[in-house]
Amino acid sequence: GALAVTPFQMNQYIIVCKASGVAAIIDSGDSSAQGWIDFAAEQGGVIKYLLQTHGHIDHVAGLADTKEALPDADIYMHPADLPFLENMGQQVQMFGLDCRTDMPALDVLLEPDQQIQVGELTLSTIFTPGHSPGHCCFHVESEELLFGGDLVFQGSIGRTDLPMADMNAMNASLATFASLPEPTMVFPGHMGVTT
Question: Which of 10, 110, 111, 156 is deepest in the core (most CB within 10 A)?
Fold first, then answer.
């Protein structure tokens, strides 16, 4: 499932393993968690994971509310993006998006190449810094799909003019991305699905 949320039209995703009923939200931008919980339940699933590609405000605006609604779901994010959560007030001022500034603690510090088992689905963590220092993508190789965050979009790439962004790191991450198998479908953080 997918829904564009926040004024930034950030794509929030939910993935459900039909075999086990385990579900994961990717990028909790939506402060209304109940709709996601209901969607998972309709698919026979329960949300166990809150996976964050990075810590920019549009991708975490609903994280505090979602964690409160799902206290047993573990938040995964790369620790290099912790400054964004710790300074959420600055992001609110910079981008003018009204959201909570009391961000929850991370349950799991994501590492490159970390495998996350969402039921019988294996999500491989690909470390893709550049847009942010801790940006990660989640690759579901068995399904030939990638949750790409703000690494690439249809016809463009993620911004590198934001605080803590790095164009050299982005270039290296794009090279990593280019090495993925060609049929991979990319579900990006904004706009439509690409390849």
Answer: 10
Report pLDDT for 98.
Answer: 85
pTM of the model: 0.97
**In the chain, what percentage of residues exceed pLDDT 90?**
96
| Rounded CA separation 58/45 (Å) | 25
Largest Cα–Cα separation, the chain:
43
Strand (E) or helix (H) holding 187 = strand 185-188
Q: Which residues pair with 126 in a beta bridge?
A: 137
Task: For residues 137 and 160, give the distance between their C-alpha atoms in angstroms, rounded to a whole number.
Answer: 17
Length of the chain (residues): 195
Query: Alpha helices, DSSP H only, in the chain?
Result: 34-42, 57-60, 63-69, 82-86, 88-95, 167-178
| C-alpha to C-alpha distance for 38 and 83, rounded to whole angstroms | 32
